[in-house]
Design brief:
The chain is an alpha/beta fold. The chain folds into two domains: about 120 residues, HAD superfamily/HAD-like (Rossmann fold), CATH 3.40.50; about 55 residues, no CATH class. It is built from nine helices and seven strands. A five-stranded parallel β-sheet has the order 5-4-1-6-7, with helices on both faces. It has a two-stranded antiparallel sheet with strand order 2-3. The longest helix has 13 residues. It is elongated, with a radius of gyration of 18 Å.
């Protein structure tokens, strides 16, 4: 089937977000402490709980109680969250703009993002207003759970066979493909452009 819908991840695809902008090698006393912090304290799984809807205040207080010796770093994770935003990934935003200008596709955002923090991004980045619709994680659902993808498909009446999904997380890409959505594992704007052209997506 011909493609008529593009589904976009945001962080790592259109927006350069990375905790490493705060927690540089100079932040910790050693590389080992930095590795321990991300593998045992503020872990990826812990952060995704907030994406599912848990309060960042509740999550921070709970973690400080468990790891009081890491209190400053724990509080900085969300206290300095805006410093983790390094702005748009301009090459990808340019592709997004070209696709919109072509008039051939509908565009939706499907993102794991804590709701209150997502509002900050909405204020900062005008291109987040270009979408025909957005689905933000929460209420106990997020990528890669199938129900989260299905929520977008149902809400906006998207046929999975007529859509392409773009995400920098291979886990999320594989989950979309299991639902019949052709997907691109994003690595760079140049790579994305080539893959979209290979899939027959027309850039103006």
């Amino acid at each position: 089937m011909a493609v008529n819908t593009i589904i976009w991840d945001l962080g790592g695809v259109l927006i350069d977000w990375n905790p490493q902008y705060v927690f540089t090698d100079n932040y910790f006393e050693s590389k080992e402490k930095k590795e321990y912090f991300f593998s045992h304290v503020c872990t990826h799984d812990w952060n995704e709980k907030q994406d599912e809807g848990r309060s960042i205040v509740e999550a921070t207080i709970e973690l400080v109680g468990k790891f009081p010796e890491w209190e400053k770093a724990i509080r900085d994770y969300y206290g300095r969250w805006t410093d983790m935003l390094n702005g748009p990934i301009h090459g990808t935003v340019n592709i997004f703009r070209q696709l919109i200008d072509s008039g051939n596709y509908r565009h939706y955002a499907l993102t794991n993002w804590q709701a209150d923090l997502f509002n900050i991004a909405l204020v900062r980045y005008d291109f987040l207003q270009w979408f025909d619709g957005r689905v933000v994680s929460g209420e106990k659902t997020r990528k890669p759970f199938p129900a989260f993808y299905q929520l977008l498909l149902d809400r906006y009446k998207v046929n999975a066979a007529e859509a392409i999904f773009i995400d920098d997380n291979l886990r999320n890409v594989k989950a979309a493909e299991e639902l019949g959505i052709r997907s691109v594992h994003f690595q760079s704007a140049e790579q994305l452009r080539k893959e979209l052209e290979g899939l027959g997506v027309i850039l103006k």
